[in-house]
Design brief:
Blueprint lengths: L1 H15 L3 E2 L6 E4 L2 E4 L8 H5 L6 E4 L7 H9 L7 E4 L9 H7 L2 H6 L17 H10 L5 H7 L16 H4 L11 E7 L5 E12 L2 E13 L4 E2 L1
Parallel strand pairs: 4-5
Antiparallel strand pairs: 1-2, 2-3, 6-7, 7-8, 8-9
Length: about 230
């Protein structure tokens, strides 16, 4: 909290001449006579503290990592007129409660209760071009890492085995060989040695099924080569 939130905010207040008082070890900062409590919200114990508060504003960093009970308690305590909550988040599961109940809630958005702003890696003015290019090489376009860490999309990551899978490159809608009834993709996954993928075409005949290996890809971890 101190590094990610308080230090940048104090720098902004210094720039604009806003008076504040914060002493190391204090659990609050006083800004022009207003007491702002500093509270870690990464476990459910914070909910018991929030329940007794009357809140006029809530600034939450990486709120998608908070337990749902803490987030809901903070929202419920925003009881002062014109109270506001400002939440920053990293991309997470599309089924995250904040995503489903607020970000995707068109009724709340149209009523003006929720405002959503989406940012990508390219929108950060403090990142160098060399860093962005390095991230692009690490996470190819269309991969899970590209969607979440570069584009900031809320996509499902849990259970994703092949994190280098790129849908546009590794799927097809028009069968490459029309004479087969259906296709099977076989894999022998190995992250510490080799990795093999085989595309089989299966043709049904009165005498039984015919299985043909149509294409294959072989990756050797020692050479990082794909054949």
């Amino acid at each position: 909290m101190y590094r990610n939130v308080l230090v940048p905010q104090m720098a902004i207040m210094d720039r604009y001449g806003i008076e504040y008082d914060h002493r190391s070890g204090d659990g609050y900062i006083e800004v022009e006579g207003n007491v702002c409590w500093l509270l870690g919200c990464h476990n459910e114990a914070a909910e018991r503290i929030i329940k007794g508060m009357t809140i006029g504003g809530w600034d939450a960093d990486e709120a998608d990592t908070y337990p749902e009970i803490v987030t809901e308690a903070a929202f419920d305590r925003l009881s002062l007129d014109d109270a506001r909550a400002y939440l920053t988040m990293n991309s997470n599961s599309p089924f995250h409660p904040i995503k489903t109940q607020y970000i995707d809630n068109q009724e709340l958005i149209e009523a003006g209760d929720v405002y959503v702003s989406h940012w990508t890696l390219y929108d950060n003015p403090f990142l160098s071009k060399s860093y962005i290019r390095r991230m692009e090489r690490r996470y190819p376009k269309g991969s899970l890492g590209w969607k979440r860490k570069i584009m900031g999309w809320w996509v499902l990551a849990e259970g994703a085995i092949y994190d280098r899978f790129v849908e546009a490159q590794h799927t097809f809608h028009t069968p490459p060989f029309e004479e087969y009834d259906y296709y099977v993709l076989t894999t022998d996954e190995g992250r510490g040695h080799s990795f093999v993928i085989g595309l089989f075409g299966i043709r049904r005949t009165p005498d039984g099924n015919h299985y043909h290996l149509l294409d294959e890809a072989y990756w050797d971890v020692n050479t990082t080569a794909v054949n």
